[in-house]
Amino acid sequence: MATQMNLNVGLEGSSITRPPFFDGNNYIFWKTRMTIFLQSLDYQLWHITVNGPRFPMRTVEGVESVKPENEYNDNDFRMLQLNSKAKHVLFCSFGPNEFNSISSCDTAKEM
After folding, report:
1. Which of 29, 45, 83, 99 supports an S-S bond with 53, CB 3.0-4.6 Å?
2. Which domain of life is it from (predicted)?
3. What is the C-alpha to C-alpha distance for residues 16 and 60, in angstroms, rounded to an integer?
4. CA–CA distance from 107 to each of 14, 26, 88 (Å)?
5. Residue with more model confidence, 7 or 42
6. Are 87 and 107 in contact (CB under 8 A)?
7. DSSP 8-state secondary structure symbol assigned to residue 7
């Protein structure tokens, strides 16, 4: 009995800091767990995963365009960092087969 308990230590789900692992099976189960995991880290991570990142914009003479990076403020950087953080969490949750299918995505939403 003690041997069985020791085998369970380190199995997926035993840590609240490690994202749920997706091996290509049981997507609905993984999606539900990943939703809660992202929301527990920072609710905006889930928001960005669902809606996509908000790219910094500026308005010049009534025309809206993407801000050049040298004009970013702290909030602009935070929003872009959240997309990177969400991508990182997703990358960490996939095995090699699933990783190959998402590695070229630019946003967590695409993934």
Report:
1. 83
2. Eukaryota
3. 46
4. 28, 23, 10
5. 42
6. yes
7. H
Structure tokens at 55: 């790219």
Task: Tokens for 4, please give them.
Answer: 């069985």
> Three-state secondary structure along 41-81?
HCHHHHHHHHHCCCCCEEEECCEEEECCHHHCCHHHHHHHH
State the pTM of this model: 0.75
User: By C-alpha distance, which of 106, 46, 57 is closest to 82?
Assistant: 46
Question: Cβ of 94: how many Cβ atoms within 10 Å?
Answer: 20
Q: Are 95 and 24 in contact (CB under 8 A)?
A: yes
For 95-106, what is each residue's pLDDT tens digit? 888 888 888 888
